[in-house]
Amino acid sequence: AVARSVGLEDVPAYMAAVDPAKGTFAEPEARPVLVMPRALADAPVGEQIFQLGRTLGKIALGLHLVDKLAAGELGTLVAALVRLSVGAKGAAVAVADAPEDRVAELTHRLERDLPRRIRRLVDPLAAACVERPLVKPETLLVGVERGADRIGLVLSDALDVAVRFAARREAPEAAAAPDLREALRLSGSARDLLRFAVSEEREAVGL
Known about the structure:
Elements: H1 2-5, E1 13-16, E2 25-27, E3 33-37, H2 45-61, H3 71-86, H4 88-94, H5 100-113, H6 116-131, H7 137-156, H8 159-168, H9 172-175, H10 180-186, H11 188-197, H12 200-205
Parallel strand pairs: 1-3
Antiparallel strand pairs: 2-3
Helix pairs in contact: 2-7, 3-4, 3-5, 3-6, 3-7, 4-6, 7-8, 7-11, 8-10, 8-11, 10-11
């Protein structure tokens, strides 16, 4: 039911002995696989729906791929994709600080391995990256996580769970504290999610 809520069908899933603090995540295979901590089986339903919803939302949007990338790696990948599409000058504009040797190496691999139909899909995205450079890749990673938190919240309506999960990335000790105010004080992601929860945007989504 959660998968259908984000437009997906039959997503493979299994439970594994992974860190419960990390939560559910997706393995970026050709067909994404949902990996859930075993501890999630004993969690309240609201937490289960929240974790499944945020990860399935990433898969539906194609953003689960960034889960395995650090900020520098993401910058290199974006620069290589732009270079493949519009050339080296465009790549230098899109991601200014990406290491040239790594970008050149990855561009060569993408040119060899990426199907033409996928490359055609990359072209308009590459042009957009040149127009709006990726100045701080880490900001994009934070945005992906915060967007996933919002999807999980909308589907689960479990505000306490969602805020604590968001806070865990930046203030893990505060996220486990009985008083939620400490988590909100220390975590920008938790505050962002709370603002969304009481916003007109959240009201418009319904569910």
